[in-house]
Amino acid sequence: MKLTSLTIRALASASTLALASAAFAQSFEVDCTVTGNALPADCGVPNAGTVVGVDVGANTEIDNDTATLGDSGFSISIDGEQVSGDARVEDLTRQTDIALSNADVQVKFDGLGATPALDLAIADERESFEAGDTITFRSKTNYPAYLARGEVRIIDYSGRSGPRVVAVVPVAPNGTVSVTVPEGDDLVAVHRVYDASGRFDETEALGLNRDQRGDGDFIDGGLPDLEEGADRTAIRRIPVSGGAVTVYGTGVRQGAQVQTLGETITPAPDGSFVVQRILPAGETDVEVRVTGAGEDLYLQRGVTIPRSEWFGVATVDLTFGYRTDGGKDAAGGGFDKYYDRGRLAFYTKGKTQSGWEITASADTGEDDLSEIFRNLDKKDPRHLLLRLDSDKAYPVYGDDSTIVEDAPTSGKFYLKAERDGNYALWGNYKGNITGSQLLRNERTLYGAQGHYATQAQTEKGEARVTVDLYAAQPDNLPGRDTFRGTGGSVYFLQRQDLSIGSETISVEIRDPDTNRVIDRQTLVYGRDYDINYLQGVVTLNRPLTGAVGGGTVVTDPLGENTVILTVNYEYTPTSGSVDGYAYGGRVQVWATDNLRFGATGMVEQTDIADQTAQGVDLRYELSDNSYLELEYARTEGPGFGQSFSADGGLIVTNTGPVGGTGEAYLARGQLEFADLNPDLNGRVSFYAEQREAGFSTLDYQTTNDEDLYGFALEYEPTDKLGWRLYYDDFTDSAGKTVREGGAELSYKISERLTWDLGVEHVRKNTPGDPDETGSRTDVAARLTVTQSERLEWYAYAQGTVKHSGGLTKNNRVGVGGRYEFTPNWAFEGELSDGSTGVGALALLSYESDDNTSAYFGYTLDPRREFNGVTLSGKDRGQFIAGGRRKLGRDVSVYAENTYDLFGTHRSLTSTYGVDYERSEFLTYSASAELGRINDPLGDFDRTALSFGVRYENQTGVSGRGRLEYRRDRGILSGSQRDGDTIAASATLRYKIDEERRFLFSFDGSYTDTDGSSIPDGRYAEVTLGYAYRPIENDRLNVLAKYTYLHDLYGQEVDGTNEPGPRQKSHVFSLDASYDLDRQWTVGGKLGARFSKSSPNATAAFQNNDAWLAVANARYHVTHKWDLLVEGRVLRAEQAGTTEYGLLGAAYRHIGNNYKIGVGYNFGKFSDDLTDLTFDDRGVFINLIAKF
What we know:
CATH architecture of the domain at 111-305: Single Sheet
Distance between the termini: 31 Å
Protein name: Flagellar motor protein
Signal peptide: 1-25
CATH topology of the domain at 111-305: S-adenosyl-L-methionine-dependent methyltransferases
Keywords: Signal
Shape: globular
Radius of gyration: 36 Å
């Protein structure tokens, strides 16, 4: 017989083995050897007669046996072979287990928490593919049971109107397909899979050129069927709610194949293989067949995928007491005689039968019962050093446990309920309110968040209705720093002490005259950038240029549009608390497959900001490239402002929040002619925006009424001929106007030669700036020569045929091009001269597949300006050099130097870093960031140094440490900015052996600043921990800890405006217990505190020393009784007092989960040296529940 559900009841003689620790059995041996078919008379245990029920989870194997037991009434089998009883009954499942083991094949149920994975790979090692080549793709996914079909979509990103799908090829999930590469200059492929309801998942774009891909995108040498487990899903719409089954094995003969879970797998050369599939809930048969190369094995295992699975732990601790003398606090004040205190803590995670996945946790902390459920959303105070190293040190308990933050929260509880992508959450989250062009929210908040999307979708996979809501009480302030690209990769933020994970970093393309955002791309941490949260330094993985794009007629030789790096983040203010709240949300509805309505509302009320914003929008899509958008938004009250820097963060210009009320209107659209007639190649686009003074958002701080509109018309009547018309218009209430229009003609003479002609007229009026007032008409011609795939160059000439007012002529001639010396080396540059001066751009770059890169560049922009800096002398441009390189297998280095010669204002910024893998166990890292400004109005220097080390070996020694230093000296933006910051963090864990552990941790900081970003103060905390937890004989257990705290900051407590008391203290603690026999344990505790404290920065430090000694004896009978007698001595040195105490308590166990205790404390104090009250004498009742 098999059991699908089982409850075990163990009698006394078995409970010692099943429920007491194995160490007890070995420490206190009882002679229970069977002699003459009988147990010895003294074979007994104190809890004899106790019956304890233990629930066992459901069996995941299917009971396929249908035979009855017959007349004998029993059947006994070993490893599936029947040895006694009815021969008709065989344990086929156990026989399958033996056969699988002999074949080194295992079938495993992984539970309900598997993550769906989707990927696309290319089966070719070629560097790139050209039109007409054949390319083979392979689909990879672990949830084919939920899929109805799949396809590979090839997209061309090179079109002027944006990405365009040029081919769609069907492919079965986990299948392969060969495709003829279509025409296109910038082709990528995405893999899309659909379920039976038409919902789809889609991968990230995979470039068809090797320099667009990573090594993992290739399957070298064909298509081996190895399960790699990679997931590159970019869009996830298909609900997957089942359990994962993994089949894996080793030792399969070379040339053999494995068929299982609907797949045919070719093992690796060493004979190993692994395949995982997510299967729907219910009963299923997993078949494994190994054939070929002399193998012939067929096995079948029945598996039941449960619909529900839960894990959880909880504890409830309640104490009710009566103080015989009322008790007194440290100041001599009285307490009530009756008291009740308690603590509730739990964590649970699971999935219900209806498909809801629940994650919840709470910890009220110990408090009065009337208070523990109040202020559950109260935030825990944090300090500066948590930003330096998130691996916070904890005392060691010798159990090798690790912490996974599955329920991130800044308060006392966390809750998330999710099903089919919809969820409600209380905890920490990022309020990503997107979909509107005018209103966005990218803040990291603590509070409530909800997301709902209907299962009904459009033909493009968009949910018909989507609702996003949030509500929070922010404890940090938002910062927004914007930088113009410097051609480098290092950018210094204005703030330090950032909240970890709070950043949202984007690259924006903007119109320099109107500040209109033309395009925006959000960067990904790790892949695109790295960030130092303590120092506030962003390092991009690739250099960012300052300008891009432009037409045939150029005004700025380096690029017509400005490239802006925007960094939104949360930071901790150095003084005061952040009171108030923030809430908002967005609702969007797709009324049809093409028409979407949206509404957004946000409220931000803090001591700094008091703003309400709301908006509505509409989008109509004819296709991916043809659309119409209409939007209205209104803001009331000031927001948060922002900063701007043109040199990477050395010179910063702050823009304060704009007050008042303002409205904004936006309309934009595009029509691809091919959507009307496939034979037409062209498009028309337009935009129109109106913003009133007082309109304030992340992107705009509007101080004057602004109106802007424009259009562009492009048409290519033949493969050789194309033309374009464009016009842009901007006016504001201050009298500024910018009107610019032009026409361009492009003619492709041959495959190698292309002529471009253009004419442009511009009219400007800038009050107070006659040099930017007037009109001008320019004409230009450009010849582009495509010499080969590796070399392209161009030459252009333009001239002003008419101008008036203060606008200067725009005559210019120049040459430029790009040359790829090798697949790794490339040079691009331009040199021009004209009416506004010499312009130059040169960039020599190197990139290889082993993560080695280098670049050297020079830019000279004749129209460059620095906010807050007046050009004195001649601008001689900017040099930049940098790179990354892996030196052998052990050392990786990177460096960047930027030297700016803006007249007499000169700056040098240098960044250096190295990672050295001394061995497979030891890694060093170091970095240096240096900046210097030389200016007649004041010099400024910045130095930031960082050194880190990480060590971990196989013998149980691990450690990590980091030391960081930042020094500012001089005048910056007109104010003195001297400051020094030193911070360090270190952790060492030593596994002496299987029974002993040692831990060391250090956190320290020193700051001497003006207090604008990080407060002045000193802080150091040293912790030593030791644990002795024997395995074979656990009579003796020891825990020891030493802590040194040197806190001169006066840490803020619970968000108060005033800093708390300062202190210098040493605290020692030693706990030990020893088992005399199976029931009796004696133990003790020694503690000492040597401390000096001061209530504020002006008061003198006072000594406050004490020591504590505790001795106890415990009597324990498993599942019955716990008795405790404890004596205590507390000595307060400065007060000259010695307190004695005696405590007795008795606990009775009730089942597996409960116990109740009663006790009496004859002393007035507790065993907590930080407890300065004397309120503990009296009787108490303690109720404990554990689950």
